[in-house]
Amino acid sequence: MNATLMAPNAQYQSCLDACSKCMQLCQECFRMCLSEPDVKAREHCILDLIDCSEVCATAASAMARRSFHIDHICNLCAIVCDECASECSKFKDEHCRMCADACRQCADECRKMKSM
Amino acid sequence: MNATLMAPNAQYQSCLDACSKCMQLCQECFRMCLSEPDVKAREHCILDLIDCSEVCATAASAMARRSFHIDHICNLCAIVCDECASECSKFKDEHCRMCADACRQCADECRKMKSM
Amino acid sequence: MNATLMAPNAQYQSCLDACSKCMQLCQECFRMCLSEPDVKAREHCILDLIDCSEVCATAASAMARRSFHIDHICNLCAIVCDECASECSKFKDEHCRMCADACRQCADECRKMKSM
Amino acid sequence: MNATLMAPNAQYQSCLDACSKCMQLCQECFRMCLSEPDVKAREHCILDLIDCSEVCATAASAMARRSFHIDHICNLCAIVCDECASECSKFKDEHCRMCADACRQCADECRKMKSM
Asked: C10-114 sits in which CATH class?
């Protein structure tokens, strides 16, 4: 176990990085959405952004400590990321586009983890 | 929607309270396990306590904002709580017994939520 | 130390409960603010609600494990709760009023903790 | 504000990255400490690792959304990181050394942020 932790395999680090990046882009997109003229149309999107940020942070922490529940946590993370990407895709601004990309990438990484 | 939020139904509040209590007992049990003479035997238990605390906190927050992913989050929470209860049940001290009870109660509440 | 943990003093539990309640009311108020007609006027308030919820959750977890940094964490929590109460007080709806009350109560409890 | 968010200045990103890295190394070190032969001597260190991980995650999230409380949150983060670095420095293993380095780097970045 220790050897694995000291030399983390590429899969773990790739997914952990995707979760950290997705958390950041969700919070940035949340802030930006709040100041958009059509904020009223973004209620569902904003809620999903906060969900996605929290679940990505939980997944990143769990992977870093090699939790025994990485498969289940990454499964949830993939679901929430996919939904958030879908909501963000409804808006044309740059921050939603970038966030949707990060969500999709994170969902892909999480799907790889849950099947390990 | 607003009416529901202003007068939260009993189911939500009951599950949210169970998650908050379980988070607290997991963190207390984590602290107590660290100072037990057989701490070396508790590595798995301690890891599960941190997982369970984090997932319970995530679930409580998601329920409070009426997230669209409560079913999936509570599903994960029930799984992690059941595992944590199982680990805590291996130890005879009072804090592990109390924590296992809180985990089982939280898992039951979460199973009710995910089927709503 | 163990004796204290098994029989937590009233001060800890009172502050921990105030943090849990404040987290819940901030997330509920966040959700409600998003669907208010004047959501555009609430950008600052909504940001403070998310800050306050996150810091209250961090403080609750730290108190439950008897962290060595409760004084500093509760100091931050009191500052963020006061600011959030101030923002919520600018709006007349029930959820903002209830949230502001919970924030002020939590700030008071946190100030007692940091001076222990 | 939007321009700043779309083109985040180097200071924010540098501190946010340091917080994310410190969170990861604290959780990895937590896991490794639990399986060390002298785990009983590491109670204080393990508690600080969990504190540090949680506060770093809170700070990263707050910076990503350009919270109004970054100065206070980064001030707390610097304090907790310094303490965690000090505890980790008492142990000679590679994971504690790497974690102490990440904590010191994060504390330095946080001190720059709180004075902005």
From this structure: mainly alpha
Q: Do B62 and A54 touch (CB under 8 A)?
A: yes
**CA Rg, chain D, in Å?**
15
Kindly list the domain boundaries of chain C, sorted by start residue.
10-114
Is the per-residue pLDDT at D51 higher than 70? yes
pLDDT at residue B2 greater than cutoff 90: no
Contact D28, A5 (CB under 8 A): yes
| Chains in contact with B, counting 3 or more C-beta pairs less than 8 Å apart as contact | A, C, D
Residues 24-83 of B with CB under 8 A from C: 24-28, 30-32, 35, 53, 57, 60-61, 64-66
Nearest 5°: phi and psi at A86?
Answer: -65, -45
Domain B9-114: state its class.
mainly alpha
Check A65 against D30: CB less than 8 A apart. Answer: yes
Q: How far is C105 from chain A (nearest CA, A)?
A: 25
- What is residue A9's predicted lDDT score, i.e. its pLDDT? 75
Q: And the tokens for C92?
A: 């007349």
Query: For A5-59, how does the pLDDT look when each residue is reduced to its tens digit (9 = 90+)?
Result: 544 578 899 999 999 999 999 999 999 999 999 999 999 999 999 999 999 999 9
